[in-house]
Amino acid sequence: MKRNLEKELIKWKNQGERYPLIIRGARQVGKSYLIEQFGKENFKQLVTINFELQPNLKQCFNSLEPREIINKLQMQLSLSINEENTLLFLDEIQECPQAITALRYFREKTPKLAVISAGSLLEFTLNSKEFKMPVGRIHFLYLDPLSFEEFLEAAGHGQLCNYLTSLNITDATDEGAHNKLLELVRRYMLLGGMPAVLREYQNNNDLSECQNIQNSLIQTYRSDFGKYSNRAQHKHLLKVMDTAPRLVGKKIKYSEIDSESKSRELKNAIELLSLSGIIKPIYHTKASGLPLGAEITEKIFRLNFLDVGLMQNICGLSAQIAVEQDIMQINSGSIAEQFVGQELIAYDDKHKPSQLFFWIREKKSSMAEIDYVIHIDSDILPVEVKAGKAGKLKSLRLFMVEKGSRLGIRISQEKLSYFDGILSVPLYMIGHLTRLVRNIT
Predict the structure, then answer these.
(1) Sheet hosting strand 366-370, strand order edge to edge
(2) Measured on CA atoms in the order 149, 151, 152, 154, is the torsion positive or negative?
(3) Which residue(s) pair with 24 in the sheet?
(4) Looking at residue 56, what DSSP letter applies?
(5) Do β-strands 86-91 and 45-50 pair in parallel, antiparallel, or remain unpaired?
(6) CA dist list (Å): 51 to 27, 99, 101, 346
(7) Could you report the per-residue pLDDT of 194-210, keeping only the tens digit for each?
(8) CA distance 280 to 339
(9) Handedness of CA 92, 95, 99, 103 (dihedral sign)
């Protein structure tokens, strides 16, 4: 399965001033597989150190001196590391925080050696009070579950990807392609973008076994929580994990997660799950200027889950997705909102952690809510996920007038169109939002 992040890795490899790289992302999104494939295809030699499987190699990093570290690794592994053509991959690096600290010195003292690291729940180490991040000496890339377009490619629908790339606002959408793509969106909502699930689907087309793998992934996340019970009670992490998928699309009240727990305890659990990448907070923004994150209200937020496939599994929606033709109505539209949020993150800048925002106005005479607020270049744009026809866009119009947006975006099952300031984008074209908006002058 090809990942779009590979393009960024190739750019990194070809940089004259190359920094050690850390790939960040939730557990099981395919970090190790991506790096190893990239290493095999782009370097003469790949040397993988897995600190979980090879704990004895931690002692090689007792020193922060790169050449001393390399010499120790060469002796331990009985191989030669050539700085000109080797990729050194430090996997499960959270098990050896000293190795993270050492990365800064690789840039300074062995700049020709390519070094990439990754790890499960790495964010807990990077954000712990005891750990000091070597700021400015390490670069990051962020990996998420496969996007819908990556899913299309993996499922053998490259021609549909090419069709979408060529489709413009002034073109008539092919009816057959439109229906096929909506069918595939429904299938993606069932499977999600976790690599292990999609690999099973590719190989055997067995939806039942795909659900079993989803169950296994969910249990893996739950098992991880026990390692961090000293930072938040285990039961609060489990409670948020189980409840968050059912609250997608809703403004969060701590009492709806657990009426018997203190809000401070649940807030801490949400922060930890956000660090691990399992949930994605969506904060209310005033949307009066850029950056959108400068005007957020932290007490007003919603939650998205890591993956739409895992979300529907926890909510028990697989049967409904399999038979329901109107995707927007499934679970009162929450699964469509999850899908859209996940897609917005998937195509965001991978050099920084993605952020999602929404907007709400709670006035008795003028209630309004916008599902997502994004910016493309200098434009702040409202995004509504809609089941209804184009006439029911009161909140979208109100936001456009109040914030001076030059257009509004409606995401639905309708075909691509632009009329009266509203860009109507089908669910399967979220990856092309930037291109479409820039084409509207």
Answers:
(1) 296-305, 279-285, 356-363, 366-370
(2) positive
(3) 142
(4) G
(5) parallel
(6) 16, 10, 15, 29
(7) 999 999 999 999 999 99
(8) 12
(9) positive
Contact 318, 211 (CB under 8 A): yes
Determine phi and psi for 324, rounding to 5 degrees.
-75, 125
**Number of Cβ atoms within 10 Å of the Cβ of 179:** 11
Task: Compute the distance between CA of residue 112 and CA of residue 18 in angstroms, rounded to an integer.
Answer: 8
What phi and psi values does residue 302 have, to the nearest 5 degrees? -125, 175
Which position has the token pair 């889950």? 305
Query: How many angstroms separate the CA atoms of 24 and 276, rounded?
Result: 10
Whether cis (ω within 30° of 0) applies to the bond prior to 426 is: no
Q: Does an H or E element contain 187, and which? A: helix 175-191
For residue 424, give the nearest of 375, 391, 380, 377 by alpha carbon.
Answer: 391
State whether residue 440 is helix, strand or coil: coil
Contact between residue 372 and residue 359 where contact means Cβ atoms under 8 Å apart: no
Contact 231, 184 (CB under 8 A): no
Residues 239, 257 contacting (CB under 8 angstroms): yes
What whole-number distance in Å separates Cα of residue 277 and Cα of residue 256?
22
Q: Which residue is listed with tokens 């992490």? A: 237
Residues, the chain: 441
Tell me if 89 sits within 8 A of 47, measured CB to CB.
Answer: yes
What are the pLDDT digits (tens) for 225-284?
A: 776 555 557 888 899 999 999 999 999 999 889 888 899 999 988 988 898 899 999 999
* DSSP H or E run through 162: helix 158-166
Distance CA(161)–CA(287), nearest Å, equals 33
The amino acid occupying position 221 is Y
